[in-house]
């Protein structure tokens, strides 16, 4: 893990911990790790194991994806084919789309 990634993750952990009103000692206790190890994680000096990372994410109710990548992860836009499909679908009302879905499900059933 690169230093900047570790720093960003540490910042995320610290911000979420404070938002939940936990002290560092309480977090360490909840994670079942030592206080000194927890402070190293939160200050960006130590990368947590995957197990510890999962426990942090669970405790702070944040996805691993968000915890590890933060907001810097770029979301890929839909492909042109998918965008065209959305545009095509948007011209139909809910009842028509449900009817189409049912027909597609029947067709898929015949193909299986």
The total of beta strands comes to 0
Sheet of most strands: none
**How many angstroms separate the termini?**
45 Å
What would you call the shape? elongated
Average pLDDT works out at 86
- Number of distinct helices: 7
CATH architecture of the largest domain: Orthogonal Bundle
Q: What is the total domain count?
A: 2
What is the class of the largest domain in the CATH system? Mainly Alpha
Note poorly predicted spans.
Answer: none
Oligomer: single chain
Key structural traits:
2 domains; 112 residues; 0% strand; mainly alpha
Question: What is the topology?
Answer:
Blueprint: H1 3-20, H2 24-31, H3 35-42, H4 50-59, H5 64-69, H6 80-89, H7 94-111
In short:
The chain has 112 residues and is mainly α.
Structure description:
This protein is mainly alpha-helical and 112 residues long. It folds into two domains: 3-69, 434 Repressor (Amino-terminal Domain) (Orthogonal Bundle); 80-111. Helices cover 70% and strands 0% of the residues. The protein has helices at residues 3-20, 24-31, 35-42, 50-59, 64-69, 80-89, 94-111. Helix 2 crosses helix 3 (35-42). The model has no long low-confidence stretch (mean pLDDT 86).
């Amino acid at each position: 893990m690169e230093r900047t990634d570790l720093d960003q993750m540490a910042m995320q952990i610290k911000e979420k911990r404070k938002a939940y009103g936990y002290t560092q000692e309480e977090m360490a206790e909840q994670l079942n790790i030592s206080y000194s190890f927890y402070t190293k994680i939160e200050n960006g000096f130590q990368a947590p194991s995957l197990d510890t990372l999962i426990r942090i994410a669970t405790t702070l109710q944040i996805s691993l994806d968000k915890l590890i990548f933060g907001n810097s992860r770029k979301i890929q836009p839909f492909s042109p084919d998918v965008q065209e499909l959305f545009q095509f679908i948007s011209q139909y009302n809910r009842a028509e789309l449900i009817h189409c879905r049912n027909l597609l499900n029947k067709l898929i059933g015949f193909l299986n």
